[in-house]
Amino acid sequence: MAHASSDRPRTLFITGASSGIGAACARLAAGAGTHLLLHYGANRVGVEDVADAARIAGSEVKLIQADLSQPDQIAELGRIAGEESDPARPLYLVNNAGIVDRRASLADLTAERLQRMFAVNVIGAMLVAREAVALMRRRNAGGGIANVSSAAARKGMGGQYVDYAASKAAIDCFTIGLADELAPEGIRVNSVRPGLIETGIHEKGGEPDRLNQIGHTPPLGRPGTAEAILWLLSDKASYTTRSILDVAGGR
C-alpha cells in the first residue's frame, strides 16, 4: 500500500473552483509545493481571480474548463489533468462542483430539473472521481478524495430543495462505497456535509440574502468556512477514511 509523504509536493485537483467552497479551498491550500488544478464551468473571471491569488502565494496553477453534466467533457477533464500535473506528485481531489435550483415543492419539480441536478451533483461527481482515481493509480502514491456533500442530505429539505438534498445524500452513500473500494490502495475517501458556509450558492438559488437571514441560527451562531475539507486531505487525517464529517455549526 502506497502512502504519500507530507514533505512531498502535491497536486490538489478542485472542481467548481471559481467561487464558493472550491475557491475557498484553493485560496487556503495555495503555497509553495502545492500544484493546483482548478476546474470551472462558466465563470472564467472568478477562477482567474482565484488563480492569481494562488500564484501570488507560491502555487503552480492550471485552469481546466468543463461542463460536468457532459460525460465526454469529464473524460477530457481527466485527460488534461493528467497532462498538466506532475506524475511524481500524489494527487488529491476536492470533489466540490455542484448546482442548486430555486425553492420548489415536489409538485413543482420537472423531469428536466431533476435530470440536470443529478447529472451534475451525482453522475458528474462520480465520473470526476473515476478520472481522479485513475490518475492516483498511475502515480502509485496513495491520494485522497474529499466529496462535498451538504447538511441538506440529512435534513431532506422538504418543500424547499428536496432534489438537491437527495443528490447530496447519494454522494454520502458513494463516499462510503468508494472508501471501501479504495482503502487497500491507500486512497482515502471522505465526505464533508457543510451547513451555512460563506459562499455564493444561495445567490445561485435565488436567495442572495439567505446567509444574512439565517447565518446566526446554528448553535454556534455564525456561518462556517472550508478548512475541514483540507484537513481531511492532509496527513493529519491519515487514519480517516469512510467518514462523513458534519461542518454545520451544530445544526
Automatic annotation (TrEMBL):
GO MF entries: oxidoreductase activity
InterPro entries: KR_dom, NAD(P)-bd_dom_sf, Sc_DH/Rdtase_CS, SDR_fam
One Pfam family recorded for the sequence: adh_short_C2
SUPFAM superfamilies: NAD(P)-binding Rossmann-fold domains
Domain Ketoreductase: 10-217
Keyword flag Oxidoreductase: yes
Keyword tags: Oxidoreductase
PANTHER family per the UniProt record, alphabetical: OXIDOREDUCTASE, SHORT-CHAIN DEHYDROGENASE/REDUCTASE FAMILY (AFU_ORTHOLOGUE AFUA_5G02870) (PTHR43639), SHORT-CHAIN DEHYDROGENASE_REDUCTASE FAMILY PROTEIN (PTHR43639:SF1)
UniProt record similarity statement: Belongs to the short-chain dehydrogenases/reductases (SDR) family.
UniProt protein name: Oxidoreductase, short chain dehydrogenase/reductase family protein
Species in which this protein is naturally found: Pseudooceanicola batsensis (strain ATCC BAA-863 / DSM 15984 / KCTC 12145 / HTCC2597)
